Amino acid sequence: MKLSVVIPCFNEMGTICQVVEAVKASPVKDCEIIIVDDEHIKFLS
Fold this sequence. Notes:
Radius of gyration: 11 Å
Protein name: Glycosyltransferase 2-like domain-containing protein
Domain Glycosyltransferase 2-like: 4-39
Number of strands: 2
Helix content: 10-25%
Strand content: 25-35%
Order of helices and strands: EHE
Largest sheet: 2 strands, parallel
Pfam families: Glycos_transf_2 (PF00535)
């Protein structure tokens, strides 16, 4: 089974790492993480 997670992001510099780590810690090891950034602040690029 593959897990796909889309994470919308708007000025979430303080929590985005926690969210990604929580997804990576899921029991499903085949996962893709898609972060959608509105480019308000350029910390993800």
